[in-house]
Amino acid sequence: xxxxxxxxxxxxxxxxxxxxxxxxxxxxxxxxxxxxxxxxxxxxxxxxxxxxxxxxxxxxxxxxxxxxxxxxxxxxxxxxxxxxxxxxxxxxxxxxxxxxxxxxxxxxxxxxxxxxxxxxxxxxxxxxxxxxxxxxxxxxxxxxxxxxxxxxxxxxxxxxxxxxxxxxxxxxxxxxxxxxxxxxxxxxxxxxxxxxxxxxxxxxxxxxxxxxxxxxxxxxxxxxxxxxxxxxxxxxxxxxxxxxxxxxxxxxxxxxxxxxxx
Length: 262
Description:
Elements: E1 7-11, H1 16-27, E2 31-36, H2 39-53, E3 57-61, H3 67-77, E4 86-89, H4 104-132, E5 135-140, H5 153-172, E6 178-183, E7 188-189, H6 192-196, H7 199-203, E8 211-212, H8 213-225, E9 230-231, H9 235-246, H10 249-261
Parallel strand pairs: 1-2, 1-4, 2-3, 4-5, 5-6, 6-9, 7-8
Helix pairs in contact: 1-2, 1-8, 3-4, 4-5
């Protein structure tokens, strides 16, 4: 089934790319299950989308760092009474600064959300969908996952996992009727930069390096409809991904360090 699904579940749906996915999918006629920690924001989003598009929008408040909450969301994905046709694993956050100065508990939580939760919900989705013979998963990674990124050491490593893992699952699912695609956006205007503690630094980057969340989502859904394994929105980001893939490791990490020091 393509991006216009009967029901889509979106994690991290309260803001940024997750909210943009929810809005675009609702506009295409999909019912939704929206997942995030902020129940008040989710309720507002559900009301807005229901009124605008006449879709059903179920709110599921969950902190995916918590194992019990993860299992509740996994169970919802596997519930055949309200089958989910598309899962968008968008929830995640980043820490910034030198690794030696990081609070190790924050780093652990980052890995728990960006890697462990995504891994668990992907498994729940593809297991249920393969049994039905249709469905799909979009896992949100980052252009930063293409190379080691000084100043974002843990974040870029978690996204490298997401990119590698999702492409492998994409190949494994051939012939099952189920799709898996990884989305690797570059600099996108969301709340991510403030939460990662790099608002001022990010603001110094030139405007041409930035994309809007809805622009990223439209590109992602076009690529998903085409059955692609990887979506890198925008020609500048595509060129950066090619460079990171082909350049020696030392070049990629040094370029990343220079860009992010701006």
